[in-house]
Amino acid sequence: MDFLLNIGEKINPFQSIIVLFIVIFILAFFAMSRSKTIKKHLMVLVLAFFIIAFFINIYIYISDGDISNYLISFGVIQVIESCIMIFSAINLLFFIYLYHKDNENFIKILILLTFSLVCCLFIIISRNFLLIFTSFSLFILTIFQMVSILNLKVYKISPYIVEYFLRGILTVILFLSGFSLFFGATSSKDFNQILKLEYIENPLVIMGLVVFGVALYQYLFLFPFQGPYMKLMKRSDSVARAVIWFLYFPAGILVLLKISVLYNYFLEKNNVFPSAILIVTTFICLIAGNTGAIKTKSIRRIMSFLYLSFTGLFLLNISMFSTGIISMVSMNWFNFMDISLMMASFMPLYLVFSNIEKNTAADHIDSIRGLGRLNKYIGVNLVIIFLSWAGIIYYVKPFLKYFNIKDFLHMGALNLIMFAIVLAALVFFFLNIFRIIFQIFKRPAVESAQKIVFSRFLYVYTTFYSFIIIIAAVLCFLRIINIDIPFLNFEIIDFNF
Amino acid sequence: MSLQVIIYINIIFFLIGIFGVLYSRELLSIIISFHFIMVSAILNFLNFSMFLYRQLLWDKIFIITGTIVIYLIMFCLVYYIYLVRDSLDKEIFYRDLRMFRITVSDWWGEDKDNF
């Protein structure tokens, strides 16, 4: 027993990663198998190992606390991030099984999913530039392989996949440039070392940060560079869409949060230029995402646009921090809340809409017409999930801080325009929500009325997420009316006004 | 050659690469532009290591690993194109693959063929 404990201590905090490598090792033996029984058993095995990795991750932190050395850093933030990504991978596993269990490449897809999760966990815990770079590059590679293998039977999609992943390659190459500049300026090997230096404001460091910012901006397909993302999402296989939403984008956001350690140093000083750039970018993302969703009638495009506008919220958190409206701790919590909200709302919506699309063979908003009348249970669940997006209104108050509402009449023309844009973004956002809810409860079209069939799994799945949302809403409400909740040490309305 | 001269050369390489990425239409030109940026980054590492940090080992490892990984991704992308290429997909070689094209169609994610 002591021998095992010794090994456990020595491999800290890689236990969860080792568990995942064991799965890959087992799966590799069955990679060519087409037997349905083997597929089913392997699916259960992978699920079990993912759950074990999830709990081991938490257990290591509880038993050993923070772990930090020249290569990795493992603290509470890393535990939360790892848990989010493993949870996301578990959901992806369900989606893959639902839609691709008859695919001859099913086991290979599972191997790629596990390997991409391993890379993602490495991205989260790594602190050395070399490890961050390598794991991030391999992550993009596995996502590319997974998206291409899932889309093998989709008609004429290869140009769109190539167009999409050229951005991924450019991100990796720009990262190499950024790291070379950091190395030249400081000879440091991680972000914390750079933070401790006296000459941190070296132009090369700032140039490196700009390169990283550009790389991540185009990695996340933020406006106005969203073209390849929108085109791929319109054509792609449904599970490939899920891979991009629930693995590719969250990983990019986690890398952004990792690098933000260095950005925060400059943002904390309330520099005007970075704050202005961040605010303008946030506005563009929110406005363009919501107006784009209003314009289109394709459900895939609506969801893709709304996903991008949600991604803009991360920029909003950072810009709020840059103007001193929220503290760094609040910013981190807001970011985690946003990731959780995105996951908890987009996963069930994705599954329901994919199911409708599969049943009706149409990607049109009319496909969901009358869904709430035909299937009241799913209708109510969808309404709960959509209304959870109204949680965005907690941003209204900090938004107003930008414009100093007390002196509204004395505002400059630019500020007034900005203020109008924010209001327009919120109006369009709520228009989107109510447009979909209205469509759900509209009188159904006669010909499509009987086509939609939902599996039992889908009922359980949407109910699970609706419960999570309701519980979160109740807890937040209790917190807002100042009823103390012992296990929540996070002030939801903790703004430094 | 001094540190400064090499930095100037690096900047030129980097800018050529960025210009190529923004301007090129064909896949091959885009990949060549990527190489310019990559060469600039590698030269940066070597340059700083030689002139400022007395030949560290870490940057060499970074260069080797980085180059292998980037080539692996590019190889996979190109191999994928050849793998799925059939009579229907030939158009990829003549397709306008400009990376940062901002047209109305690109903005809304809609295409002319409305496929």
Give a structural overview.
By secondary structure, chain A is mainly alpha-helical. Helices cover 74% and strands 1% of the residues of chain A. Chain A is globular and about 70 Å long. A two-stranded antiparallel ribbon of chain A has the order 1-2. Chain A has helices at residues 2-10, 15-29, 36-64, 76-100, 106-125, 129-150, 158-186, 191-195, 203-219, 227-235, 238-267, 272-295, 299-322, 328-360, 371-374, 376-388, 396-403, 413-440, 456-480; strands at 67-68, 73-74. With 115 residues, chain B is mainly alpha-helical. Chain B has helices spanning 3-23, 27-51, 58-84, 104-108. The longest helix of chain B is centred in the middle third of the chain and has 27 residues, at 58-84. Chains A and B meet through helix 6, helix 7, helix 10 and helix 12 of A and helix 2, helix 3 and helix 4 of B.
Key traits:
heterodimer, A: 497 residues, mainly alpha, two-stranded antiparallel sheet, 74% helix, B: mainly alpha
What are the SSEs and their pairings?
The complex is a heterodimer of chains A (497) and B (115).
Chain A: H1 2-10, H2 15-29, H3 36-64, E1 67-68, E2 73-74, H4 76-100, H5 106-125, H6 129-150, H7 158-186, H8 191-195, H9 203-219, H10 227-235, H11 238-267, H12 272-295, H13 299-322, H14 328-360, H15 371-374, H16 376-388, H17 396-403, H18 413-440, H19 456-480
Antiparallel strand pairs in A: 1-2
Helix pairs in contact in A: 2-3, 2-5, 3-4, 3-5, 4-5, 4-11, 4-14, 5-6, 5-11, 6-7, 6-11, 7-9, 7-10, 9-11, 10-13, 11-13, 11-14, 12-13, 12-18, 13-14, 14-16, 14-19, 16-19, 17-18
Chain B: H1 3-23, H2 27-51, H3 58-84, H4 104-108
Helix pairs in contact in B: 1-2, 2-3
In whole angstroms, how far apart are the ends of chain A?
55 Å
Which runs of chain B of at least 5 residues are low in confidence (pLDDT < 50)?
none
Shape call of chain B = elongated
| Count of extended strands of chain B | 0
